[in-house]
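Consider this pair:
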Amino acid sequence: MPPTASPLQERREPRALTGWPGQAYDAADIYGQRMQGWMPPLFSADTERSPYRNRIVSRVRDLVRNDGWASGAVTRVLDNAVGVMLRPVSKPDYRYLAHLSGNSAFDAQWAHEFARAVDSYWRAWADDPGRYNDAERMLTFAQQMHLGFRHLVVDGDALAYLPWLEENIGLGRARYATALQIIDPDRLSNPQNQYDLKNMRNGVEITDAGVPIAYHIRRAHQADWYNMSETVIWDRIDRETSWGRPQIVHFFEHHRGGQHIGGTGMLTPVLQRLKMLIKYDGTELDAAIVNAIFGAYIESPYDHDMTAEAMEGGDNSLGAYQEGRAAFHEQRNISLQGSRLPILFPGEKVNTVSAARPAGNFREFERAVLNNVASGAGMAPMQVSNDWSDVNYSSARGALLEAWKTLKRRRDDFSIGFASPIRIAVLEEIMEADDLPLPRNAPPFLAARHAYARCRWLGPGRGWIDPVAEREGAILGMQGGISTLEDECAESEGRDWEETLDQREVEQKAFDDRGLEQPEWLGSRNQYPGYIPPKEDA
């Protein structure tokens, strides 16, 4: 009789879609073929980054140095997010200052005058032709922000030091003692390369509550062979002074709570695919070159190994055959109008090489990988590939608008976390050193620095795909009250609206001074005060 199943044995059937019995989620399956062996570690935010930070960063840098796709992606993000013209436009919170001081003189008119004065002093520091804003005296402030943002995108961290350099102040030299130095994040590390501890995370010293209070910076990069004595010395620099002035500014994208370092740049999630694409590109190129060089070959019935074996065995017939072939071809060089006509030795035949390169699916494979890279980097696919051949206006505008959201978020995030603390330190000195328009009972800077330092950061504009249609849409938005001139100038052109109006006033006056009829693009003829219309010819 056939054996019967024991009543204690239950028929094991999946209770979820594909998971093992007893599991409510397929994602928890550890026995199925799809999920078996997939057991990633559950690390803290710092533990999953610190031990592998140097390995990841060095690989990303190698790609950016040597791969056109990676280098182009980084360049595109830098150019669209910050460029080299990142600058603040002051927007002091006059309402807060009025409530704090009880002085109604803190109004919109005062805010306008204060902003113009502060911005002019800021430009004197940020665009100093002597580059005294830079502790190394090489870059303007906007160029330093470009460098800091590049470190953020590639390395995952942006790090800066704000030294006080009074020795730079003098006639024809610096106006302010505040300077800025961009630091290579590699130099942020634990003293003597010790392991991370409870209050030390990859050079960031934290309190028990997780607040960064100090940073340990190597005096020289660990691979700076020309300055080896400094590579084993660390300086401990407080995050800020006792009154809150920033000394070290450290910024990175926060992906988890309790995270104190970045260490993973924009290309980290797609690093493996980019490396595979490089190998595939190289293999296809090598094969194409070989096919281009070797167009045809002659096949004989015997190869050199067979000839050598025959000669070792005392049989000279194969050796004589090969020698005869060589002598035959040495004397034959017949051509017809530059094209050689092969006359073959008995037993030989001509074969051609089929140049089937690149492979038929090469373009689609490359496109799929680059789409993955673009998605991971928060960019439009055509921005990475720089291939606009299959793009129409609607698809391009939709893709670029989505990419612009990410680029603008990155710029705003970087401005808030990195550029604004630097500006606060500079503005503190400007408030002390220069005569700014302040009404009576004005609160000191330290009592309301967030109100005095409030600003809007301007970077590269979004630009236009169809300038006519999109500018008409911008005008309709302003006329309908859903947009302003400030918004349109900042978003589309990356310009300050007041500077735009000032320039229009200058151009209107130039036409009037010359007695020229103003073109329609100058708008209405609301002239500057004291305008006298030109005399008409008799």
Notes: Residues 393-433 form the longest helix (41 residues). Confidence is low (pLDDT under 50) at residues 525-531. Residues 462-517 form one domain.
